[in-house]
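User
Class, as today's exercise, I want you to study this protein, comparing sequence with structure tokens, and judge whether sequence predicts the tokens.
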Amino acid sequence: MSEKKCPVLTTADGAPIGVQQALTAGPRGPVLMQDVQLLEQMQHFNRERIPERVVHAKGSGAYGTFTVTNDISMYSKAALFNKVGKKTDVFMRFSTVAGERGAADAERDVRGFAVKFYTEEGNWDLVGNNTPVFFVRDPYKFQNFIHTQKRDPKTNLRDMDMQWDFWSLCPESLHQVTILFSDRGIPASYRHQHGFGSHTYSLINDKGERVWCKFHFKSKQGVKNLMDDESANLIGSDRESHQRDLFESIEKGDYPQWRVCIQVMTQKQADEFRWNPFDLTKVWPHAEFPLIEVGTMELNRNPENYHAEVEQAAFNPSALVPGIGASPDKMLQARLMSYADTHLYRVGVNYRELPVNKPRCPVMNYERDGAMATAKDYGGKPNYWPNSREGAPMPDEKYKDPAWELGQTVVDRFDSTVDHDDYTQVGNLYALFDEAHRDRLTTRIAGVLGQARKEVQIRQLCHFFRVDEDYGRRVAEKLGIDVDAAMKESGAAHAMA
């Protein structure tokens, strides 16, 4: 019977390692700088931690699927909702909010509830909590609030005076504070809690109609919470109780599930609602805006490596897909920037290249390079827009979101080239130049424009002619282009197209 061979140990560059011992000058001598295998191991060890998240530092994650159970195409054109029975892969991360990575799982704290949907039209990240509201509605207060949940700058201790000083000066926190200190404040596990998108989002259907929406995840395991004494006892025996429960449940095939629902509000209802419907400290009463079932989410696979797949998982409220959009919610508007920005710092500019964060659909854009860029998606393609290079990715009008009214203002992507005169002032400047100056100007331009493709030369000449016919003809002559022939050729090409 043959003995099973183990793989050969190698360096990070792939070279086989013969002996895993330090290289020294004699058995008792000093270690040599020549021992690059030892140096490499120490250097990597010194760098194998990345900064922990400022909030939501302690967390657990798992993979799963989202399955559509109800048609909501009348509200959203999002591809992941377009067919009952359709399945979309997801990755989910649960977390505590205030504690550091070493905090106990069973502490009284809000729980993070973030889901990444790997859709065929890009990743959709829903970044929420186990509560439908939050402590503040103004993003200016968010960073300051988080400071009160951390450590006093002098004592380095969690400080109840900091917390309550802030809360007492911010009465909008009352709703969340009451939930936090109620019997719901300490979930028994990540499996036995509801989840909420919390923010208001927009849904857009294939007719361009927009409604406002809130997302809800209802635990099919039921809701279980801990009392203070139960929490204290559990923390004393197991600081990783939520992580252990989630991991072991999935390992033995007891897959947790959530019923995914939405609430829907029309613009007319938003205009008439007695509270600001985009206020993160308020809920929409279910009696007025009942839950509409969308599907079921199941977690059924544990990550293979915690650091690679959970610690480096990055969720962005800005990761939206066609059919799902933002709203005037001020906190959401700020988070559209801040979440992605923190990942750029914490993980790196190419964090979306990591398998757990990488979309499962083609990625085509003009974002380039940075640390650890693979260039896999773009290779030698152009890195600028607009361009007329063959095969370059271009916008498609069918994915444009409809405009929406925000008070007396229309929110839309306005074309900056419309209703602008880009030629008159240039013509006035050209008119100031004497004959010799015009000759030097057009000679310089022709010298470099002549190195561009013929179609680019013709396109640029059209602009010069709009400024001043003399400007265009001088450049054309120095490029050796017969303007009349080029114009006829261009007209014929347009007619054929």
Summary: The first helix runs from residue 36 to 46. The radius of gyration is 30 Å. The longest strand covers residues 59-68. The mean pLDDT is 93.
